[in-house]
Amino acid sequence: MIRDNMPAPHAVSPSGTRPYLKSVLRNVVVNAQVGLHPWELYPERPTRLCVNVEMFAWLRGAQALNKDFYIDYDPVRNAITKWPERPHTPLLETLARELIEVCFENPLVDAIRISITKLDIFNEADGAGIEICGERSELLPEGNVKQEKL
Fold first, then answer.
1. Can you tell me whether residue 101 is helix, strand or coil?
2. pTM, rounded to two decimals
3. E strands of the chain, at which residues?
4. Contact at 8 Å (CB) between 72 and 24?
5. Burial 43-55 (b: 16+ CB within 10 A, else e)
6. What is the pLDDT of residues 52-80, one digit of tens each?
7. CB 47 within 8 A of CB 82
8. Chain centroid, CA 146 distance in Å
């Protein structure tokens, strides 16, 4: 199974490591109709994907001690589990960009890291895929940036 122990995106501040809360979904395996290769175009043979999502909230002041301050990963999981019913999607980037929007629907989320890996796609590799990582202001279209903090 794919493992990813990358450091937090943009987690460095002038005083050292920026304090954060991270909510994760690790190694969610799901089938989807995705890909550009000729063998990926058959609906009876979906591609097995491994999805990893990390959502970061930068901790400010008393948030670190607030027991009600959390990032709900259920909406992201729910979006991923609907992929088997989707029509064919040529690019993994399309799926990742849709997950970015789901992650940032939560106003607490300041940054994300999403990786999607096609498992079993090449005999010589465990997988092949993509990763998108960045902060809200970098990844959402201008004017669609939610600044509200709960």
1. helix
2. 0.82
3. 12-13, 16-17, 20-32, 47-58, 111-119, 127-135
4. no
5. eeebbebbbbbbb
6. 999 999 988 766 666 778 899 999 999 99
7. no
8. 18
